[in-house]
Amino acid sequence: MKFERIPHSAPMPTAERDAALANPGFGTLFSDHMVTIDYDEAKGGWYSAKIGPREPLMLDPAASVLHYAQEIFEGLKAYKQVDGSIAFFRPEANARRLNASADRLAMPHLPEELFIQSVKELVRTDKDWFPTVEGGALYLRPFMIATEPFLGVRPAKQYKFLVIASPAGNYFKSGAKAVSIWISDYTRAAPGGTGEAKCGGNYAASLVPTGQAFAMGHDQVLFLDAAEHKWVEELGGMNLFFVFDDGRVITPPLGGTILPGITRNSLITLLREQGLEVSEEKYSIDQWREDARSGRLIETMACGTAAVVTPVGKVSGPAGEFEIGSGGPGQLTMKIREKLVGIQKGAVEDTHGWVMKLD
Ligand code: PLP
Ligand code: COI
User: Fold this and answer.
1) Rounded to the nearest whole angstrom, what is the distance from the C-alpha of residue 264 to the centroid of ligand 2?
2) How many domains does the chain have?
3) Alpha carbon of 331 to ligand 1 centroid (Å)
4) Three-class SS of residue 330?
5) Would you say 147 and 158 are in contact if contact means Cβ atoms under 8 Å apart?
6) Residue 210 CA: which ligand is closest?
7) What is the DSSP string of 225-242?
8) Which residues contact 73 (CB under 8 A, 6 or more apart)?
9) Closest-lying ligand to the alpha carbon of 307?
10) Could you tell me the CATH number of the domain that includes residue 75?
11) CATH code for position 203
12) pLDDT (tens digit, 9 = 90+) per residue, 239-293?
């Protein structure tokens, strides 16, 4: 699709931008431009692709996204490679997952090529927005909203797809230090619900428990399964892996209630290549506590695009708390993090075709 270019009349001054890029944090700094593409069933699908200044949207107050949360999103990163070029990590996987989420939320598919073209257009336009901080990347947030104005409850017939970019440093203020997590009593997702879709509603449901975890000084919230409140599912924005002293690694299975993380999928492959036995297996909170106390469980890692691979050091809940290993970063966690980051930055050979160059 041909993108119409709308010139920016007031981009951020270079000195201001460069100062911001040296210390971007996560999710509060945004680049100058955005992509928008409209959809109308009556017009036969997607039309009017634009790349222009990042600016507030005009939405009818009856737009159904504002009432019934018909919204889905993605998160991926563009990386400055060690050779100076720019590349994405597995963007096709994000394009596919967006369409899987669209299926669950009764939204139209966006052709995968158009997803890739959109993120490329934005990164090419905002190529001067890469953070200069160690471990930084340009985080991309593609998302789709229902724009049709009506109040009846049904799938909309008009949508907008957008991509914005946010220069990002570490997700956790502590960097790659071990994080502390809080076991929530609340349920994030139930069987037959929307847990495996990346839709805003799942995150809305996670905000009270996340707020509670933060208020108690923890870094993330942990959700258990809805039916028994027994099985470990995932964190607010990350998947989990458990490492045992006999070289086995397990990660909760994709049963429809957790997000099929692209980092999770990549780690399964990389860990198996290290000769480790990785299984997708249910793991109960009681077993986890017992294994951590006995020393059989030696590491726990959280993973996601924003969090990369982050060690979990302490787990707390209404029934008390327990430490993982010595409470600090585990060896395998840091080794696999380095390998993944190496591939993403082009410092380690990409034998899986995961890295897509911008040009
Ligand atoms: N689980 C949840 C709830 C998430 O929000 C994320 C982040 O996107 C993940 C897991 C990890 O997914 P990915 O590795 O694709 O970023
Ligand atoms: C991501 O890792 O891309 C996410 O969407 C998770 C969120 C916590 C920022």
Assistant:
1) 13
2) 2
3) 23
4) coil
5) yes
6) 2
7) -TTTS-BEEEESS-EEEE
8) 98, 141, 142, 143, 144, 198, 199, 200
9) 2
10) 3.30.470.10
11) 3.20.10.10
12) 999 999 999 999 999 999 999 999 999 999 999 999 999 999 999 999 999 999 9
| Shared-domain flag, residues 274 and 293 | yes
- CA–CA separation, 232 and 169 (whole Å): 28
How far is the C-alpha of 311 from the C-alpha of 331, rounded, in Å?
10
Mark whether 146 and 9 lie in a shared domain. Answer: yes
SS3 for 94? helix
The protein residue whose alpha carbon is closest to atom 5 in ligand 2 is 75
Residues 131 and 276 in one domain: no
Residue owning the nearest CA to atom 11 of ligand 1: 304
From 168, 191, 215, give the residue that closes a domain: 168
Please give all residues whose beta carbon lies within 6 A of any atom in ligand 1, as ranges: 75, 234, 237-239, 259, 261-264, 304-305
> Is residue 174 a contact partner of residue 314, using CB atoms and an 8 Å limit?
no
- Contact in structure between 163 and 34 (CB atoms under 8 Å): yes
Query: What range does the domain containing 329 cover?
Result: 179-344
Domain end call among 106, 138, 168: 168
64 CB neighbour count, 10 Å cutoff: 25
Residue 330 alpha carbon to ligand 2 centre in Å: 23
Q: Please give the full DSSP string across 22-45, using - where no structure is assigned.
A: TS--SSS---SEEEEEEEEGGGTE
- Please choose from 305, 337, 344 the residue to mutate so as to test ligand 1's pocket, defined by most ligand atoms within 8 A of CB: 305
Residue of 132, 212, 185, 183 lying closest to 288 (CA atoms):
183
Cα 238 to middle of ligand 1, angstroms: 5
Domain co-membership, 37 together with 143: yes
Amino acid letter at 281?
Answer: E
Q: pLDDT, tens digit, for every residue of 227-239? A: 999 999 999 999 9
306 and 206 share one domain = yes
- CA of 198, closest atom in ligand 2: 5
- Are the C-beta atoms of 172 and 307 separated by less than 8 Å? yes
SS3 for 163-190, per residue? EEEEEECCCCCCCCCCEEEEECCCCCCC
pTM beyond cutoff 0.90: yes
Pick from 144, 161, 167, 138: nearest CA to 76: 138
What is the model's pLDDT at position 177?
86
